Amino acid sequence: MPQGVEVRVLSWAKFIFIYFQPMQKICPSLRYPFDWEHRRPMFHNDVFFVPEYYTKHSSDKFTNLQTYFGNKNPMNIEYCSGNGEWIIDKALKHPNINWIGVEMWFARVKKIYAKMIKNSLKNLLIVSGEGYAFTKNYLQDCVIDNIFINFPDPWPKDKHAKHRLIQQAFVLELKRIAKKNGTATFVTDSVAYKNQMLNEMIGWNKICYSQGDYGTSFFDRLWRSKGLEIHYLCYENS
Questions:
Q1: Dist. CA 195–CA 98, nearest whole Å
Q2: Domain covering 31-236, topology
Q3: Is 141 in the active site?
Q4: What ranges do the domains of the chain cover?
Q5: Which of 9, 15, 170, 186 has a Cα at 20 to 30 A from 214?
Q6: How far apart are CA 57 and CA 71, in angstroms?
Q7: What is the pLDDT of residues 115-159, one digit of tens each?
Q8: Catalytic one of 46, 153, 158, 213
Q9: How far is CA 129 from CA 29, 48, 69, 110, in A?
């Protein structure tokens, strides 16, 4: 190999080493902290894991939220956080609010985690697990100021509708964890799911959605680009 070519190859290899090694330190890869047989709820790398098909839940495996964040700031939660774009933006813009992002798909949790580390966020807790299981078993009464559920899976086929997150049992848990006069905001592109939400939110006071800088996400842009209407439903825990 000519000397010049060898130098270029070595220089490129050196560039790869220098460039990507710091990136690994800035955005380390998140891995499952357990195998299937030994799965259990646990904190790992500032992520709380709630494993699937687990029945031995105990609230003492979680922590008091004020203790975790080290302050008494308002507490907001987002379910169905996706790749984290919406909640990362909110946590950056509102550092005096504590945020909890709940996402059941681990591939997406890893993306939220990478964004959290990259932005050095201390006011965000990530939960890797199913929203209902986490809420029912680990959140205390009257601890959440504002609840956001952005583009939950609509399960469009009638036979699959039973898998939707917004069901009466979950709504009751939301009411339990919400503070008095706390709010819940649901965002969806599905008319069928919007109608189910309207029917399920018994005991909540429906309020007008206040247009403002709500924020955006991958699914928000995707469905808008396809010409779909985005529905906002807002409620108050009166």
A1: 31
A2: Rossmann fold (3.40.50)
A3: no
A4: 31-236
A5: 170
A6: 26
A7: 999 999 999 999 999 999 999 999 999 999 999 999 999 887 877
A8: 153
A9: 18, 8, 20, 12
